[in-house]
Amino acid sequence: GFQPCLVADSWLDDSPGRAAWAALLQLLRRHFHPVLESCRAGAAKAEPGAFHGALRELGTRPEQV
User: Fold this and answer.
1) Which CATH number does the domain housing residue 56 bear?
2) Sorted alphabetically, which keywords does the UniProt record give (predicted)?
């Protein structure tokens, strides 16, 4: 089967527009599990660590995706 996952290159946002980003993430969480944000994983999107964290959460290996 398929298990959708969202890896977001996001940041901790303290700007006035942060409510819109938070609302979007809440909407996406209804459709994707897990939702992994780079700022919470301690990695940037381009870093392999961000993708390895997603694979760990999904319980899969790179050759399976």
Assistant:
1) 3.40.50.1000
2) Hydrolase
Q: What is the total residue count of the chain?
A: 65
CA distance 57 to 51: 10
What digits encode the pLDDT tens for the residues 13-65?
A: 778 888 888 888 889 888 887 877 766 666 555 567 767 777 887 888 888 77
Supply 59's token pair: 């319980």
Q: Mapping DSSP to helix (H, G, I), strand (E, B) and coil, where does residue 27 land? A: helix
Structure-block tokens of residue 7: 């890896």
Confirm if 13 and 21 have CB atoms less than 8 A apart.
yes
Residue listed under structure tokens 């964290």: 53
Is residue 23 one of the residues assigned to a domain?
yes
d(CA 49, CA 47): 5
pLDDT of residue 46: 59
